[in-house]
């Protein structure tokens, strides 16, 4: 494999000598024929098969000690491996043991990333078979700490870095990526990593982690996934002063410079990979997130995970909670602490669902939903000074400053934390919720764990076990007065892998709000009586691939109904199709 890449690169540099050529070429033009004129020499490059030492260092094909005797003979591996032959199951067992021995989450994270670099199938097998245990290692909350310390744990680059230095050359940068048939891109500019703020170029951990879940949870092939970090600088002083910082050492570019680089990226993606590549925006700051989504939502297959993925997962949890409590979504009153991407995204999808169910116009259903930001309750007297995405939530009310006052004023049945600030659901606030409601719904969604609005233990003990609680980052079950409570994880990881699979397998060309509603309904449909009896409003993550297949099927169904699907004719059984196109990490036998 390494030798193949080398040959490709040599091929490209020979071609670059052609001064007349303006188009064509790139990594796919292995033989140089596209760009060569009749008088320019070409080299008849061939693609070689990885074998021997190179095969052991190729993470896509390496199987380590699981290579059989026959494979060791056929692929020049004799002597390069110790004599033992062990199964993939035994390899898994050994690795799990090693990972469990590490005390620190970051050590576990590093061990997993090293495994991914060494043996991709084993990495995914381990992750899929132990998803509940390993998700918090490769994803939230540990991925947050990994991003904070990315500079020091950085060894080999992962993903594609597009910085201001690459302005004007973004298409060439995409062509440097060794894989050509990309189906999903997760892109960040690192400005708002989880609730941790601006981590600049170190945000790369997020697209890498999200895409690992696209594969493990949604079955998208690893080779079809592309993590991208756009580096326009950082306003994080600590990073700017850190001699080991891996990104551009300048303050963030804004305005035209920023939008030009993003536009070049979006255009190059479509040019290089076509109309059906999915681009997931992740962890952009509010001031860019809404604008990018609005701008590219009509021309590209894009969605913003923090706005739309989070909205869909929360709606799913609410639909499940209603099955537990009875009544309709329109019977509820919502209060959000935090009016950014997650807060307004969730609020809008709830209002849409209410409107669909009751046939009441959206402008009216929005009135059941109240949002607070750092300046207090969002009310009409503040309208002129509000950012545009907050304006629809400015209802008639006198000004209210604090959260406790807001709970007392609005008397919400559902309290949702999306501010990125931890420990803001105080004892008084939670007690007020249970004062007004027999079973209050409390969602502490900010990530990672240290930024959660309250802990699971606080939610259960302060409400004397009455709360229906879920959080963005995982919490262990809580025992309160002899009863065990199971907090659900209301994290967009339930949604984006299945949503992405549904879009990809139907060949969808745009994302539509109805697909987010469909994904929420599909997820909620996977919650059974048994889960309800434990107080769960989300199904356990151990079944996530089955859940993703159901989400994918309903999303694809919507894509066909809306005329947005291009894979025709429509396959009859979409759940079966979803299951059958999922990547399997089991080793292949080599001839
Ligand atoms: O990554 C997560 O766990 C959820 C998410 O999108 C965020 O917090 O930004
Ligand atoms: Mg995010």
UniProtKB/TrEMBL annotation:
A divalent metal cation binds at residues 282-283, 306. The active site is at residues 139, 210. Keywords: Metal-binding, NADP, Oxidoreductase. Pfam families: malic, Malic_M. This is Malic enzyme. GO terms for molecular function: malate dehydrogenase (decarboxylating) (NADP+) activity; metal ion binding; NAD binding. Residues 307-560 form the Malic enzyme NAD-binding domain. The keyword NADP applies. InterPro entries: Aminoacid_DH-like_N_sf, Malic_enzyme_CS, Malic_N_dom, Malic_N_dom_sf, Malic_NAD-bd, Malic_OxRdtase, NAD(P)-bd_dom_sf. The lineage of its organism: Eukaryota, Viridiplantae, Streptophyta, Embryophyta, Tracheophyta. Its cofactor is Mg(2+); Mn(2+). Belongs to the malic enzymes family. Divalent metal cations. Prefers magnesium or manganese. One of its GO terms (cellular component) is chloroplast. It comes from the Eukaryota. PROSITE patterns: MALIC_ENZYMES.
């Amino acid at each position: 494999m390494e030798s193949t890449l080398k040959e490709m690169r040599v091929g490209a540099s020979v071609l670059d000598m052609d001064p007349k050529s303006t188009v064509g070429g790139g990594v796919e033009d292995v033989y140089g024929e596209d760009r060569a004129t009749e008088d320019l020499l070409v080299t008849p490059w061939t693609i070689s098969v990885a074998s021997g030492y190179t095969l052991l260092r190729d993470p896509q094909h390496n199987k380590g000690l699981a290579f059989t005797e026959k494979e060791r003979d056929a692929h020049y591996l004799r002597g390069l491996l110790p004599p033992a032959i062990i199964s993939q199951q035994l390899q898994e067992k050994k690795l799990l043991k090693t990972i469990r021995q590490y005390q620190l989450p970051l050590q576990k994270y590093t061990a997993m990333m090293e495994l991914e670099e060494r043996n991709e199938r084993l990495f995914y097998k381990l992750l899929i078979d132990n998803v509940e245990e390993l998700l918090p290692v490769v994803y939230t909350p540990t991925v947050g700490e990994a991003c904070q310390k990315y500079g020091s744990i950085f060894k080999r680059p992962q993903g594609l870095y597009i910085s201001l230095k690459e302005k004007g050359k973004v298409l060439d940068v995409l062509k440097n990526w060794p894989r050509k048939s990309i189906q999903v891109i997760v892109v960040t500019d690192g400005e708002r990593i989880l609730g941790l703020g601006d981590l600049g170029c170190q945000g790369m951990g997020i697209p890498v982690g999200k895409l690992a879940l696209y594969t493990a949870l949604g079955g998208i092939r690893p080779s079809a996934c592309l993590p991208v970090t756009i580096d326009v600088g950082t306003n994080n002083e600590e990073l700017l002063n850190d001699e080991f910082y891996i990104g551009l050492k300048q303050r963030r570019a804004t305005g035209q410079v920023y939008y030009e680089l993003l536009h070049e990226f979006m255009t190059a993606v479509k040019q290089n990979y076509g109309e059906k590549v999915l681009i997931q925006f992740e962890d952009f700051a509010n001031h860019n997130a809404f604008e990018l989504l609005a701008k590219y939502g009509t021309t590209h297959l894009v969605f913003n995970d923090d706005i739309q993925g989070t909205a869909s997962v929360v709606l799913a949890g609410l639909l499940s909670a209603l099955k537990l409590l009875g009544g309709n979504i329109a019977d509820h009153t919502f209060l959000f602490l935090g009016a950014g991407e997650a807060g307004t995204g969730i609020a809008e999808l709830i209002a849409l669902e209410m409107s669909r169910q009751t046939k009441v116009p959206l402008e009216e259903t929005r009135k059941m939903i109240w949002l607070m930001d750092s300046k207090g309750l969002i009310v009409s007297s503040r309208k002129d000074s509000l950012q545009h995405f907050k304006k629809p939530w400015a209802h008639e009310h006198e000004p209210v400053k604090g959260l406790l006052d807001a709970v007392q004023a609005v008397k919400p049945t559902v309290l949702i934390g999306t501010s990125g600030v931890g420990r803001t659901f105080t004892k008084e606030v939670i007690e007020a919720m249970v004062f007004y409601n027999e079973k209050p719904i409390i969602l502490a969604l900010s990530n990672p764990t240290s930024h959660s609005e309250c802990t699971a233990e606080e939610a259960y003990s302060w409400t004397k076990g009455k709360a229906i609680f879920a959080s963005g980052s995982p919490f262990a079950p809580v025992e309160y007065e002899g009863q065990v409570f199971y907090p659900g994880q209301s994290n967009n990881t339930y949604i984006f892998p299945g949503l992405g699979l549904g879009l990809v397998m139907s060949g969808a060309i745009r994302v539509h709000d109805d697909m987010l509603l469909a994904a929420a309904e599909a997820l909620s449909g996977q919650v059974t009586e048994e889960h309800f009896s434990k107080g769960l409003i989300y199904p356990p993550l151990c079944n996530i691939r089955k859940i993703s297949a159901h989400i994918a099927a309903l999303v694809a169904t919507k894509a066909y109904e809306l005329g947005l699907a291009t894979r025709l004719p429509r396959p009859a059984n979409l759940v079966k199709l979803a299951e059958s196109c999922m990547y399997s990490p089991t080793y292949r036998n080599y001839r």
